[in-house]
Design goal:
It is built from ten helices and eleven strands. It is α+β, with helices and mostly antiparallel strands. It folds into two domains: 8-179, Sandwich (Jelly Rolls), CATH 2.60.120; 186-290, Arc Repressor Mutant, subunit A. β5 (71-75) and β6 (78-82) form a beta hairpin. α2 (142-154) runs antiparallel to α3 and α4 crosses α6 (220-230). The chain is elongated and about 65 Å long. The protein starts with 18 loop residues before the first strand and ends with a helix.
């Protein structure tokens, strides 16, 4: 028999009633203590103007993400402003107080989960219980939350396993999209974002990291330091990856020639292009042509 969401009157007592709208799902509210990672419940809540919760502890680990509105968060005694893009985590033994700004009420996602892998996964994402971070651009992780809710509400036999894997993907995405909190390193991060966007828009004509730095009015050493601080790959690796992804798509088109695609990607030497292509995909360009 397919598990069904409990009726509204049997909502867990840790859910706030100070919401104007809610889209929630429920899986196993008493997961096995031996589980590696088990999603318990989750959803999206539109907070009412009087929304305020105060807890000294919580039975599960939880990740919350602000999609819209503003509010205040007190986490383990430290106070934070909440705004679109804010992400925070708490769990057993972590005191937390959350309140909305009544003028711009919070709309936020949450995922509650447990399991022996929970703290390890949260820490790896840069979101250890009791921490606050931000993702950029705001909305970057919304599709994963929506997919979690969609699968959780379906109540299929595989929903629990699917939601656990989606949660892992969500935490990886948080790690990738992390940004400084407002007021922290904002100028350096804005510079990094500008350089990354410039590289993504112009990768076909760009030939080197030095050229990227020059066009962004930076020293190339500083550009590399920015990527080291805020990204998971160097500007050179990003440039190569974008060029090779475009080249792979071009090689799939009828009549495409390796020499022509190499020139489009900015490689004057076809053999150099082939070596780089193989280092990225594990096969030479001509093998990609044969896959058409």
């Amino acid at each position: 028999m397919k598990p069904q969401p409990p009726p509204a009157e049997t909502n867990p007592d840790f859910f706030s009633n100070q919401v104007s709208q809610a889209r929630r799902f429920y899986l196993n509210l008493k997961p096995s203590p031996k589980a590696g990672l088990a999603v318990v419940c989750g959803g999206r809540e539109q907070c009412a103007a009087d929304y305020a919760i105060s807890r000294r502890t919580f039975p599960y680990y939880s990740v919350e993400y602000v999609a819209e509105g503003h509010g205040q968060l007190k986490l383990n005694g430290a106070e934070h402003l909440l705004q679109p893009g804010s992400v925070f985590a708490y769990g057993p033994g972590i005191a937390h107080d959350i309140a909305t700004d009544p003028r711009y009420t919070l709309s936020k996602y949450f995922i509650d989960f447990s399991g022996i892998e929970s703290v390890k996964l949260l820490t790896a994402s840069g979101l250890k219980p009791g921490m606050v971070t931000s993702v950029s651009p705001p909305g970057e992780i919304v599709p994963l939350f929506d997919e979690l809710i969609r699968n959780g509400r379906r109540g299929t036999p595989g929903a629990a396993a699917i939601c656990a894997r989606l949660l892992e993907g969500l935490l990886l995405k948080v790690a990738e999209a992390r940004a400084p909190l407002p007021g922290q390193e904002t100028l350096a991060f804005a510079t990094y974002q500008h350089c990354r966007e410039h590289l993504q828009r112009n990768f076909l004509r760009l030939r080197s990291v030095a050229q990227v730095a020059e066009e962004c009015h930076l020293d190339d050493t500083y550009l590399c330091r920015l990527f080291q601080r805020y990204d998971h790959e160097s500007p050179y690796r990003l440039l190569v990856r974008l060029k090779m992804n475009q080249a792979a798509e071009r090689l799939q088109l009828p009549g495409a020639m390796v020499k022509q695609v190499a020139e489009e990607a900015g490689f004057a030497n076809q053999f150099h292009f082939s070596r780089v292509f193989k280092s990225v995909f594990g096969i030479p360009p001509r093998a990609m042509i044969r896959l058409r």
